[in-house]
Design goal:
There is one protein chain. With 116 residues, this protein is mainly alpha-helical. Helix content is 71%, strand content 3%. A two-stranded antiparallel ribbon has the order 1-2. β1 and β2 form a beta hairpin. α2 runs antiparallel to α5. The chain starts with a helix and ends with a helix.
C-alpha cells in the first residue's frame, strides 16, 4: 500500500473520519439543544408533515409553541446547513475509506496469489 494514499495532509483518512464524526455529533447535540430552547419536538410533525409509517403516536405539546417562528430564525437555517455540510463531509470520508479498503483487499489478494 502506498503511504501517500493512506495519508491526507498528515492525517490518516480514518483519523480524519473520526474527527469529522465527532464534530458532526457535537453539531447534532447543539441542534437538539437549539430546538429544545426554541421549539417543540412534539409539534414537529405539524411543521414537516411527519410520515408516521411506524405508527408512532406523538402527544401534543401542552405549551403553545409555534415551530414556524423557530424556522424563520437565521440561526436555525445555519445550524441545518452545518448539519448538511458535516453529513456530506463524513459521507465523503466514508467513501474515501471504502476506496482504501478495496485497494487493500486487492493488494492482499494479489499477495496471496503470488505466494501460492
Amino acid at each position: 500500500m502506498h503511504y501517500e494514499i493512506c495519508y491526507l495532509h498528515g492525517t490518516s483518512k480514518l483519523n480524519e473520519l473520526t474527527l469529522r464524526e465527532d464534530a458532526s455529533e457535537k453539531s447534532d447535540f447543539a441542534l437538539i439543544d437549539f430546538i429544545m430552547k426554541n421549539g417543540s419536538w412534539l409539534n414537529v410533525d405539524k411543521v414537516i408533515g411527519f410520515n408516521n409509517s411506524l405508527n408512532i403516536e406523538l402527544p401534543q405539546s401542552g405549551f403553545s409553541i409555534n415551530n414556524n417562528q423557530m424556522l424563520k430564525l437565521p440561526e436555525f437555517e445555519n445550524r441545518i446547513e452545518n448539519q448538511i455540510m458535516f453529513f456530506n463531509t463524513v459521507k465523503d470520508r466514508y467513501n474515501d475509506c471504502m476506496g482504501l479498503n478495496k485497494e487493500i483487499l486487492k493488494l492482499l489478494e494479489s499477495e496471496i496469489k503470488a505466494k501460492q
